[in-house]
Amino acid sequence: MTKFTEAQFYSLVMLKSLVNLFFPKVCYACLNYLHDNEDTICTSCRHNLPITNFHFNNDDSVTKIFYGRVKVAYGTALFRFEKKSLVQQLIHGLKYKGYEQISPFLGDWLGGELKTIKNYEDIDIVIPVPLHKKKLKNRGYNQVAGFGKQIAECLHADYRDDVLLKITDTTSQTTKNQFTRWNKTDELFTIKNTFLIENKHILLVDDIVTTGATLEACITTLNHAKNIKVSVACMAIA
């Protein structure tokens, strides 16, 4: 650990104060200024965000979405998503305003909780829902990458973004109904390096789960690998 003299310590404090004066940090949920001891989300918003506690309460609201479609061992979401809410502000900022640091912040939050839950003790690999290369190029990052990496670190699991790949750009399919868009899952995702996930417990991570169509397509593709178990963790559930 680096040791500082008293003069160096106070110089660093002054420098940080000057940086905050000219480039103040804001809460990405309410957009108010953060205090020096706050990071990414202010204390008030942390207390007001609609936390689900699904993983603490053995609530199967997430896994129920997939009943009769694909098998999901365990499922959870950190928040409940509602329109015009703090959660919508966070997700919108993450996806469309370049606030990439929201992703690892939420991953560290949820990962810190999941590591205390028995159901998630044997997670071997964390895999993010992938973006098509065109969208990845436009955005510059996958909004769930930091989320997944931090959860993997908390669970002492591997993080792999080279197994599940998106091969169809669905941005032009917004006018199609859900059945038409997701009927042929092989046209959406593909799987590579299957040997990396065989006989493993996989945690598939995404930002929001609504109908579960995207996650279903991902799980269907992952099931081409032998003897896997898939669980799901999302930032929010709508």
Mean pLDDT: 88
**Helix proportion:** 25-40%
Instruction: Flag low-confidence runs.
Output: 18-22, 172-176
Report the principal-axis shape: globular
Radius of gyration: 19 Å
The total tally of domains equals: 2
Assign the structural class, choosing from mainly alpha, mainly beta, alpha/beta, alpha+beta, or little secondary structure: alpha/beta
Task: Tell me what you see in this structure.
The protein has 238 residues and is of the alpha/beta class. The protein folds into two domains: 45 residues, no CATH class; 189 residues, Rossmann fold. It contains ten helices and seven strands. The strands form two sheets. It has a five-stranded parallel sheet with strand order 1-7-6-2-3, sandwiched between helices. Helix 6 packs parallel to helix 8. The longest helix is centred in the N-terminal third of the chain and has 17 residues. About 4% of the residues have low confidence.
Offer a concise description of the structure.
The protein has 238 residues and is of the alpha/beta class.
Secondary structure blueprint with pairings:
Blueprint (H helix, E strand, L loop, with lengths): L5 H17 L20 H6 L5 H4 L3 H4 L10 E6 L5 H11 L5 H13 L10 E4 L4 H7 L5 H11 L2 E2 L4 E3 L11 H5 L6 E3 L9 E9 L3 H10 L6 E9 L1
Parallel strand pairs: 1-7, 2-3, 2-6, 6-7
Antiparallel strand pairs: 4-5
Helix pairs in contact: 6-8
